[in-house]
C-alpha cells in the first residue's frame, strides 16, 4: 500500500486597513488553492491614530479558512510609520502556531494577488520566492508599464521564516545581480514571472486620500499628493499621483485577468474602463 504524502499547506497572509472590496476579490480568486487566509488588522493606523475594526466577515466566507487577527495594542510612542508597519506584520508570524514547519507562508500587500494557476502543485525550490506581477492603477484594466514587473508577494516555508518584514523589505530581485556573496543580501531566491496582479489604489477618491494620509510612506501624505483635487485630476488624466512622469494605458479586460473579475464586470463596473 502506498503511503499518503502530506501536502504542504498554502497560507496567505495580509495586513488589513479598510479595503473590504479587495479582500473579497482576493478571497474569491484564491479560495480554491489557499488553505488558510490570515488577516491581521490593527486597532491603530500606522500614524498611531485609532481606527477601530473595519474588516467585514461576509457570510460567503468559509469561517474555517479565515484566521482573523486583531492587534489592539497602541504602537510605541517613539516608533515611526515604517516601524509600526513592521510591528503589525510580525504579529502575523507570532500567530502562525497552527502552521507546520513545511507549510508555505505567503505574505502580500492586500492589493497583490497571485495567479491561482501558479499555486496548483506549488513548489518552492529556493529559501524564498518573489512573485512578479503586472501592475494596474486606479482601475482593474488601467495598466502601469512603469512599475511592471512589480515585486509583490513573498513566500517561504515556515521553518525558514524568521521575520515577515525582513522577507518583504530585504528579499529583493536586485540581490540576484550581485556577483559575490554579501551577508546582507539574501540571494537564495526563486522568481515567479508573470505571476499575478498588483491592483494598486482600486479605491474611491476619498479612500485613496485616507490611505495616503495614514500609510507608511508619509512623504506622500502632504496635501500636494493626498488632496481630493489632486487625486481626481490625476486619475482622470491616467497619470501617476506623485509627479513621477508615469502615464497609464487602458487595456482590454480579457482572459489574462482573474476569472472572478471578468465574470463580475457589472459588480466592479466603476473600477473598469
Could you describe the 3D structure shown?
The structure is a single chain. The protein has 273 residues and is an alpha/beta fold. The chain has a domain at 10-135 and 143-202: Spore Coat Polysaccharide Biosynthesis Protein SpsA, Chain A (Alpha-Beta Complex). 23% of the residues lie in helices and 22% in strands. The strands form 2 sheets. Strands 1, 2, 3, 4, 5, 6, 8, 9 and 10 form a 9-stranded mixed β-sheet that branches. Strand 1, helix 1 (20-30) and strand 2 form a beta-alpha-beta unit. The longest helix is centred in the N-terminal third of the chain and has 13 residues, at 81-93.
Secondary structure elements and pairings:
Elements: E1 10-16, H1 20-30, E2 36-42, E3 66-71, H2 81-93, E4 104-108, E5 112-114, H3 116-119, E6 128-137, E7 142-143, E8 150-157, H4 164-170, E9 189-192, E10 196-200, H5 205-214, H6 223-226, H7 228-237, E11 249-250, H8 259-262
CATH architecture verdict of one domain: Alpha-Beta Complex
Shape: globular
Instruction: Return the CATH class of one domain.
Output: Alpha Beta
Topology pattern, helix = H, strand = E: EHEEHEEHEEEHEEHHHEH
Reported by name, the CATH topology of one domain is Spore Coat Polysaccharide Biosynthesis Protein SpsA, Chain A
Key attributes of the depicted protein:
273 residues, alpha/beta, Spore Coat Polysaccharide Biosynthesis Protein SpsA, Chain A, nine-stranded mixed sheet, two-stranded antiparallel sheet, 8 helices, 11 strands, 23% helix
Amino acid at each position: 500500500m502506498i503511503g499518503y504524502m502530506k501536502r504542504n499547506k498554502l497560507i496567505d497572509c495580509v495586513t488589513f486597513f479598510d479595503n473590504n472590496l479587495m479582500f473579497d476579490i482576493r478571497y474569491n480568486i484564491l479560495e480554491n488553492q489557499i488553505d488558510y487566509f490570515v488577516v491581521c488588522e490593527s486597532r491603530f493606523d500606522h500614524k498611531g491614530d485609532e481606527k477601530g475594526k473595519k474588516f467585514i466577515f461576509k457570510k460567503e466566507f468559509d469561517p474555517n479558512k479565515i484566521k482573523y487577527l486583531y492587534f489592539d495594542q497602541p504602537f510605541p510612542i517613539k516608533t515611526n510609520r515604517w516601524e509600526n508597519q513592521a510591528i503589525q506584520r510580525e504579529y502575523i508570524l507570532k500567530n502562525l502556531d497552527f502552521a507546520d514547519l513545511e507549510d508555505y507562508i505567503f505574505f502580500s500587500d492586500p492589493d497583490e494577488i497571485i495567479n491561482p494557476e501558479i499555486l496548483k502543485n506549488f513548489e518552492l525550490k529556493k529559501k524564498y520566492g518573489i512573485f512578479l506581477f503586472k501592475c494596474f492603477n486606479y482601475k482593474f484594466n488601467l495598466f502601469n508599464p512603469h512599475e511592471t514587473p512589480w515585486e509583490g508577494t513573498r513566500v517561504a516555508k515556515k521553518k525558514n521564516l524568521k521575520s515577515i518584514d525582513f522577507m518583504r523589505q530585504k528579499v529583493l530581485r536586485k540581490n540576484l545581480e550581485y556577483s559575490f556573496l554579501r551577508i546582507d543580501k539574501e540571494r537564495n531566491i526563486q522568481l515567479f514571472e508573470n505571476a499575478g496582479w498588483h491592483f494598486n489604489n482600486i479605491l474611491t477618491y476619498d479612500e485613496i486620500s485616507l490611505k495616503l494620509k495614514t500609510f507608511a510612506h508619509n512623504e506622500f501624505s502632504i496635501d500636494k499628493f493626498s488632496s481630493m483635487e489632486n487625486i481626481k485630476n490625476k486619475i482622470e488624466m491616467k497619470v501617476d499621483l506623485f509627479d513621477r512622469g508615469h502615464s497609464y494605458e487602458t487595456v482590454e479586460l480579457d482572459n489574462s485577468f482573474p476569472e472572478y473579475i471578468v465574470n463580475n464586470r457589472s459588480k466592479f463596473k466603476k473600477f473598469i474602463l
